[in-house]
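Q: I have 681 residues here and want to know how they pack in 3D. Can you give me a structure?
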Amino acid sequence: MKKGFTSLIVLVLIFSMFKDVFAETKAADKWVVTLKPTELTIQTGTGGTTGGATTGEIAGGTTGGTTTGEITGGTTGSTTTGGTTGGTTTGETTGGTTGSTTTGGTTGGTTTGETTGGTTGGTTTGGTTDGTTTGETTGGTTGSTTTGGTTGGTTTGETTEGTTGSATTGEVTGGTTGGTTTGETTGGTTGTTTTTITIPANVKLKVDKEENDLYYVTYNGNAGTILKSAVRNATPWEIYPTAKVFKVTNDTPLLLNENGKLVNRGTVKANTVFSKIGVKDQYLMIQYSNQTAYIDKNKTIPLPNGTLPVISIVTQPVKITAGVAVRNSKIVLPRDNKPTMVNIPAKQKIVIDSAYSSYYVVKVGGLKGLIPKADISLKTYNYVDPNGDYSYEELTADLQELNAWYPGFTKVEKIGKSVDGRSLYAFKLGTGKTEISINGSHHAREHMTTNVIMEMLDQYASAYEKNTKISGFDVRKTLSQTSIYFVPMVNPDGVMLVQKGASSAKNPNQVIKLNNGSKNFKAWKANVRGVDLNRQYPAGWSTISGNKSKPGPDNYKGTKALSEPEAKALYDFTNKHSFKNTVAYHSSGNIIFWHYNQTGTQMARDKAIATKLSKQTGYSLVAPAKGGGGGYKDWYVAAKKRPGFTIEISPYVGNKPVPNSYFSSIMKKNLPVGLILANEK
């Protein structure tokens, strides 16, 4: 029983010692930021530390003015004596438990003695006065006596009982004075003084502790309290502004500075760790290839003691370091599971550091990342391989690649879809307001015309970029005045039938049936529905000669003009523009068609341009004749009253594609054709 009682006492004592700790929540490394100018409240005491052991003694001598003595102390056994004065003597004692005597001496004025004490075992005596003597004792449990001395006025004695836990003693003795002597003794817990300092807005403060609705902080060496409502929690970057390594917390845009504006050029993946090279406004700056990329700081956290992962890979040097993404791709960390660091869109230019296996190595945020070689085009100024059968897949890839390298003066546009759903592309080259157009592969077996067009625009774009000339033409100057729109493959379904066979079609059995049961499509001219696209345009369509009665490999004009989506797409596209002139490339005959019922000055103008084309290519001009119709050139000349030409690029080879061995000489003849037409007034 005794042991249990002792344990209880110990627990009570421990709780008493640590009750203040239990009553507050200590914030470890907690920082806050002021929301607006905020008052810091500072408390200073007028009394000493209660329960201490402070002794103060003041002795005033003879003065001709005013003597003021103030003692703040703990338990004292001292005496404060005001000497003879010619003015006013004031004595103030703050004390606790007293065992002393406070005596007011003989005064010629008014003597006031006030004693506030704890438990008192002493005596308070008011001396003999000619004026008024007031004695006031405020104490706890009191075993003392308060005596008012002999007075010529009024003697007042007052005892107030209370309970005090202080231990401060003050004693004041006033001597003979010629003025007024005042003595004040205050015991118990001492009083405090409150001052405030204004802290500006957006100041970061470390929280020493928190209690209820207050934070205890220190500002410029001043310790005090502020209201919690006046601050917000500091962000991690406000706490650790100098941290170099950081982690991305959420997927966030990768921003690049383009012409003074931050543009989204990818997505940085969450949980990726990088090293920053700087800070600008709300963004962290990291190395990205040979550029600086920007990441939203709010989507990251600093790692003040963090380090970047060290991953060793054996790389190989590369001769060409400039690359561009030809499709959407990703940069991965060279680990076994290859986590994604950054997703990048097509057309994103990068600088290659080295090569590793089937990847190129690029530098990102202090790390080496990997990007698939298949997704990157190296800067060669020569992006089209026009040799051999040039497929629809190559076409779409090359158009994107060219646009990726030359975004400032090229544009890829979808103008429609084929019967089987393949996109029909137009490619704009140049920045001029005047426009011309060149198209190819209306007829499937004449797909070398696509090779010619793609090589033409590849070389034109390269010359524009490098500011060089082709056949004496200033390419950049020409294309800054006149833009050329190329539609390289009007009939992609038909071209793929010729190159790949029936398996390229959505309905192989149907096309085999249209081909009279044959799986050999080398002679095929029509689209996948068996309609000849160059007999689809509304110019003499109803009177076209040599028309076949049903769909098949060639010469069937369809049930009506523009019934086929490919012809309709080119028709609509042409009507949306105001092309100054046009060329439709075909492949057989080494001849140029230029006439369709035009007369007078229009005819003379068109023949003059045709003659220039003939001189360049060596192809013969077809003499004017009545009839014809249904072709793209026919419709353009009739509807637009502007020069239009059908150029047959090869000697007659029969009902089959032009042999690939012819390409080099054909290309040499036709390379400047677009520039000749672009320079026509």
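Q: Anything worth noting?
A: DSSP finds twelve helices and 45 strands in the chain. The first helix runs from residue 2 to 23.
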